[in-house]
Design brief:
globular, 5-stranded mixed beta sheet, 5-stranded antiparallel beta sheet, single chain, alpha+beta, 26% helix, 12 helices
Length: 371
């Protein structure tokens, strides 16, 4: 039977698409859905939400990872079954939240989480990531799964968070700090609007495998994939292939997505750029895009020491000098970017001059309109 607009639930097929999210909410949240008065942070990593009815829900936030083993996920489910009636949730920044309705269950839950460690002694479920502190890093796939990656996402995130672990468990910054990572400039991470952003960049055009390209690729697709029109069809040694205009290439890797005979990753040309000052919030100031402050750092697996050192320089200079509630971009805007480079000890180069102005008049980023 066709769709009946006057009776949309008639003969409705319900096994297509995701199930209703309300099926997965803890009962206390479902009972008070849309009727919450306020929330408070009891200690780093522990929140309480209070509803109009007077009911409360206590949340313990712990650091997670974007890529988890099955055994680790099973352990999370075991904890949820033991303390939270089987309910657990993941945040958009790869944190895991356990929720209890009864305050008497809070301390046993925290004790259980803190007691679980890996064989090497590190915490499986470190508590933190709330308030005016550092939360988990949202990141892309990196070398593990992405074909255009200029760096390894999980590797850098692990190296950075190992160094900043204490800051994840405390709330000592002027405001909350968001760090993100995207493994290439296609940016399926949130690097355009984060306090500190780690961006993988390529600096060399794709290498063309003329020998095999015609057999492995649809040449029209490879040509059409380029956003700058830098690729055109050609014939090389009697074989159909493509040629790349290096001056037009923006090193995005779209061609490699369409054609595996045009790899982009290069040991010398691919590396890390650092951006700072972005945010989505309208609080205090309008949303801001991140700005490049370090144009290139070479890839240094497995621990990326230069990248980690630069992030710590920026973060701790901000922590020492910013005013309360001031996000990193607000701090830089107040003291001026010249002072920012002085205080962080970063080198300013001509690559960092922002001379693009077209979007200023064509795209609104805020409800804070100025006339």
């Amino acid at each position: 039977m066709g769709y009946d607009a006057s009776n949309p639930m008639n003969d409705r097929i319900t096994d297509i698409g995701p199930r209703d999210f309300k099926e997965f909410l803890p009962p206390v949240i479902l009972r008070n859905f849309g009727m919450w008065l306020y929330h408070d942070i009891l200690e780093p990593g522990v929140l309480v939400h209070v509803a109009e009815s007077g009911e409360k829900v206590f949340t313990v936030r712990v650091g997670g990872a974007r890529v988890m083993s099955v055994s680790h996920i099973r352990e999370i489910c075991e904890i949820a079954d033991k303390h939270c009636d089987g309910y657990v949730r993941w945040t958009t920044r790869n944190n895991v939240e356990f929720m209890v309705e009864d305050e008497a269950k809070l301390k046993p839950l925290i004790a259980d989480l803190e007691s679980r460690k890996f064989d090497g002694g590190s915490h499986k479920f470190p508590k933190g990531g709330t308030g005016a502190g550092l939360t988990n890093i949202v990141h892309t796939q990196g070398w593990l799964h992405c074909h255009t990656a200029a760096l390894d996402a999980s590797g850098i995130v692990k190296a950075v968070m190992d160094e900043l672990f204490d800051d994840f468990q405390q709330m000592r910054f002027p405001a909350h700090v968001r760090i993100s990572l995207a493994c290439c400039l296609n940016m399926c991470g949130a690097v355009h609007c984060s306090d500190i952003a780690i961006l993988g960049i390529h600096r060399k055009p794709p290498m063309v495998d003329h020998e095999n390209l015609a057999n492995m690729c649809e040449i029209p697709l490879a040509v059409a994939a380029c956003p700058t029109g830098a690729i055109k069809a050609t014939t090389t040694d009697g074989k159909k292939s493509v040629v790349v205009n290096d001056d037009k290439c923006m090193y995005c890797g779209n061609c490699f997505t369409m054609c595996p005979s045009m790899p982009l990753a290069d040991a010398e040309g691919s590396g890390v750029a650092i951006l700072v000052g972005g945010k989505l919030s309208n609080r205090i100031s309008a949303p801001m895009f991140s700005k490049v402050v370090v144009p290139f750092i070479p890839n240094e697996p497995p621990r990326w020491p230069q990248t980690v050192a630069v992030i710590k320089q920026i973060l701790y200079a901000y922590a020492d000098d910013a005013k309360k509630y001031e996000r990193l971009g607000d701090w830089a805007a107040r003291i001026g970017w010249e002072r920012f480079f002085e205080k962080t000890g970063l080198q300013f180069t001509a690559h960092l001059i922002d001379d693009y102005r077209f979007a200023y008049t064509t795209w609104r980023t805020s409800t804070q309109f100025k006339f």
